[in-house]
Amino acid sequence: MMRKNDYDIVVIGGGAQGTAFLSAVYHFIRTQPISHYLKIGVIDKKENMGCGHVYNNDYPWIIMNTPTTDLSIMKNDPFDFFKWVELNKNELSLLNDNLEFVPRSVFGLYLKEKYHFFKKELIKYSITVEDIFDQANDILYQNKENEITISLASGKSIKTSYVLFATGPNLPQDHYHLKEYRNYIHNPFPTINNLVDLPKNSNIAIIGSNLTAIDITITLSHLGHNGKIYMTSRNGKLPEVKGKYLKSYTPKNVLYDNFEKIFHAKGTDLNLMDLTRLIRKELKIHGFNWRDYFFDKKSKPECMIDFEQRVEEARNGPSPFNIILGMIPEIAKTWRLVSSDQIELFMTNFYRNVHQKHGAIPLINAEKILSLLQKEQLILKGNLNHIKHNNNNNFSITFENSNDNIICDYIINATGPNRSICSNESKPPFTTPCANGFIKEIKIGGTIIDTKSGMILRNDGKFENRLRAIGHNAEGSHPFINNFAWILESTNEVAESLINEVIHGKK
């Protein structure tokens, strides 16, 4: 096969999702040897190759929220990461020698090692992977000539036949327009760089109350912060807690095979009610009403007692999270059968409630948060309304239906990633693809793809064959794409489709 361009495939993003793609190519090509020489380019900063921004160097108490036994990058060995940690534990900065929940940076070291392993092994199968230490600025697509030009921050440009977006989660939105102020921290990670110099006696408000907010709070505590910490959000609630006895309950009803049968019987895409019926039956087995489980009106915002009870339950036995743990893989696979309008309805109206259960806190972190709440150093606040920067360089925070406003010296954004790529002002490297209508999103943000090939849906309803996406770049089709096992599984399908496309030269 003659190569017209510099690369057959360019992967934008060399982090966990880019590494997952190389893993998928490696596992596929071992069973499907090729006679062609292929060249893959991976664009990212040198320090991010393999691990990305999220899993780079940081404090050891910033731990993974998923146990080591569920984080393998190797398709046929689910315990590869766990065995790697055991083998290297004497050289790793583990928190209290905990082998179950390890620091993010440890997972990053593992990913880096595997990234270089895949590069080395793929050469044996006529596939060269080349690191491009740069940043993609824009993508110029010339359909007739089968050529894509990627302009780089360095001023250079490269040509490729296919682009795979694997950029990972975007930075959060600046909902309260605070970026111009020095005492506002828009992106706290890595905390080892961005939180270390905060005055110990300052009052700090965190926007958000989910996993990122938990990590920030724990970091401030470890750094000896003695001022007040306010965790503010719309619902004022903390996530579910992963129990000491963490083991998924095998579902009896919530199974992909069951959803697939409904899909074929209907002859059309599933809706949320189709999912809810089986989820309701599953929860009933464990004595839960599905509405109360996900939308508990008895649980009050800012209530420490609720969280205290969840921590105690998690200390002494399996927690209700084990039910969710069993259902997650089955529902993740099922999203491909759900219509995009129903995915959008879920993300708009229900994702926040479900994420409180799905994005659970490891017990080790939950106990630290509970201790801070009990000492009243951490204060949980719901019904967040507005944040205003004052002339004396602090912030006033107001809450709906309350006169209990607070004044803070610093604000830290922990609202989670911004899913939008094209809404409002599109940013590199999506500027031109968005302007040309090559990327369609659900209304609240999230690219829609063909889940088996990764091809991105265009505004005209056709799939863009030469622009593909995996992981967080496909969030409009995968609401639970932050599940690493599902990222790996879905990426395997995309890699197989893309490599076959390149080999056979389909136009």
Question: Given this structure, which CATH class of the largest domain is correct?
Answer: Alpha Beta
Portion in beta strands: 15-25%
What is the tally of helical segments?
Answer: 15
- Contiguous runs where pLDDT drops below 50 for at least 5 residues: none
- As a percent range, the share of helical residues equals 25-40%
General shape: globular
Structural class estimated from helices and strands: alpha/beta
> What's the total count of β strands?
18
How many domain units? 3
Return the CATH architecture of the largest domain: 3-Layer(bba) Sandwich
Structural Rg: 23 Å
What name does the CATH topology of the largest domain carry? FAD/NAD(P)-binding domain
Please identify the oligomeric state: single chain
Largest sheet: 8 strands, mixed
Notable characteristics:
507 residues; alpha/beta; FAD/NAD(P)-binding domain; 3 domains; eight-stranded mixed beta sheet; five-stranded parallel beta sheet; 15 helices; 17% strand
What do these coordinates show?
The protein has 507 residues and is α/β, with parallel strands linked by helices. The chain has three domains: 7-170 and 419-504, FAD/NAD(P)-binding domain, CATH 3.50.50; 184-239 and 362-413, FAD/NAD(P)-binding domain, CATH 3.50.50.60; 241-359, no CATH class. Helix content is 34%, strand content 17%. It is built from 15 helices and 18 strands. The protein has helices at residues 16-31, 80-88, 104-123, 191-194, 211-222, 256-266, 272-285, 290-294, 304-316, 321-334, 340-349, 351-358, 363-374, 431-435, 484-504, and strands at residues 7-12, 38-44, 127-133, 136-142, 147-152, 157-165, 184-185, 204-207, 229-232, 241-242, 361-362, 378-381, 384-389, 395-399, 406-408, 410-413, 455-457, 463-469. Strands 1, 2, 3, 4, 5, 6, 17 and 18 form an eight-stranded mixed beta sheet that branches. α1 (16-31) runs parallel beside α3 (104-123) and α9 packs antiparallel against α13. The longest helix is centred in the last third of the chain and has 21 residues, at 484-504. The radius of gyration is 23 Å and the shape is globular. The model has no long low-confidence stretch (mean pLDDT 91).
